[in-house]
Amino acid sequence: MTDSTADTGASRVLGGRPTEATIRTTTTITTVKNTSGAHIELKNVNKVYGEQTVPAVEDFSMDVEPGELIMFVGPSGCGKTTTMKMINRIIEPTSGSITVDGRDVLSLNPNELRRHIGYVIQQIGLFPHMTIAENISVVPKLLGWSKEKTRNRVDELLSVVQLDPKTFAGRYPKQLSGGQQQRVGVARALAADPPVMLMDEPFGATDPITREKLQVEFLRLQESIGKTIIFVTHDFDEAVRLGDRIAVLSDRSKIEQFDTPANILRAPANDYVASFIGHGAALKRLALIPLYDALLGRASDARGTASLPETDSLRDALDLLVLTGLPAIGVTDASGKVVASVTVDQISAELGDDVGGAAAGALS
Amino acid sequence: MTFEAVIERDVSVAPAELGVRRARFWTLRRIATPIVIVLVLLALFLWIQTLEIDSIMARTLNADYILLRTREHLELTFIASALVAVLAIPAGIVASRTTSRLLRGTILTIANIGQATPAIGFIILLAIIWQIGFQTALIALVAYSFLPVLRNTMVGLAQIDPSVTESARGMGMNPGQVLRRIELPLAVPVILAGLRTSLVFCVGVATVATFIDAGGLGDMIVNGLKLQRFPVLITGAVLVSCIALLIDWLASIAEDLLRPKGV
After folding, report:
1. pTM of the model
2. pLDDT tens-digit profile of B19-55?
3. How distant is the Cα of B186 from the closest Cα of chain A, in angstroms?
4. Which CATH architecture has domain A3-33+284-361?
5. What is the ipTM of this complex?
6. Fold exhibited by the domain A54-279
């Protein structure tokens, strides 16, 4: 988000809303940019399997900024996983170049390379004969860390993924639930603090409730660690919820559109992308816009007692409006004081308004 | 003959055991087996006491002779099984690693021929073209009990969840590390089941070593037959059966103890 956009937004806020929202938004952006991530560049990457004439991945090029969370979305068999797996050379590209922080991946020892790239797969692949602590220690051990450093790191990571080290360090994978195993999978991939993470449908095998919980935790985690992440999914909603940018892929890993979730939702590049978004694009966009980023009404316009915090999305606001049938509902700040109001018209205006969309999309 | 019954039982049991999960340690069978062995040996001993021992029987039915033959028998069994482990496990790894169908086919075919050929025919042929004695018997035993370990090593490696090996590779383990730290430990229960079968095979087949003068309890059985002294024959047969049961029992305990935790 540029300063001028923010100013325009703030000046148009009715009812004496402070410019605090703008400031907070700007801070969020700087936080995301604090990154330990690496820059990844794929150039004209091709993969042809064996004798086949049709490539699995054809002329794939992409530039990923440090700390970005990039979602690869596409139907099964479109080559999205193949593309991702070429970055750590689980699959060797047939031609093209891949660099991580300027270093040519193909010239490095693949095992050495993989120790510095976190890798999480859908089936998790925890080692059943090793305890949780041993699972997480695998890469540190390969890198020759001292026992004490490794042990401290294991405890730290288990806490990060919200598993009590005392309870879980000594357990075996089969003694954990699916969601807990998936957290261990993420912790294990983070063990040596790699700048890059590759995640292949990591939450795909969990039930919807666990998945949503894991997604929220994962977003919060990413906010603090700022890794460069390539995240493969076939679930567009997951891509919208998590991604800084989304690459919508079709056959042979062709990039149909590569943009922020808000931009893709507002202006799908073609019918293919539109079909992938499916119904309810407007609602999906609303879910991306927090109330503090929207143009709201005066606090005194609020009717009834219904209100919601400004950190909620426009979609939450619409939901409450529909539920209560009120013409306008209150918006509260962190202290719980009603500082603004919101109506259906104002929500619609946000969708028709390019500035609003760009503001939400500026997170990238 | 009794030892053949033992062999047959174990062939049928081995594959079924592949899927067995860690069960209770003290099962009925585990408790009952040693009791049955002791009771059978006791009954044999008491029965022999009631017999009139003539001079021919006395030459074999004495502690020194029985212990010597038993020791020979166990030596054959354990050395052959150790050789099988040392040879068949690497062969199984190679056979499951190689992309060459020819190599895999060759290894499996040789192992199959080894087991399909009647041990007695093989051991005597080998003695004719080479020499009689302990070493020849050992080779015959190894050839005969090679297949279970080879096959179980291959099955044990093949049944590992591919996502486990993929994540091991993805974390930067080289192929040797994946094999040593992940695949072999996870294949241990299945490989051990193969070794157990192999051991029991060896106990049974070691009885034919007597035909090429390599000793063992087969001597008692054959002597008993030749000299028409059935107590001798029965003592030999019962001892072989009890040893087979005992080794099977010990191996089942080893399997439980050596199985990696968490699996």
Report:
1. 0.78
2. 334 557 788 888 899 999 999 999 999 998 888 888 8
3. 7
4. Alpha-Beta Complex (3.90)
5. 0.77
6. Rossmann fold (3.40.50)
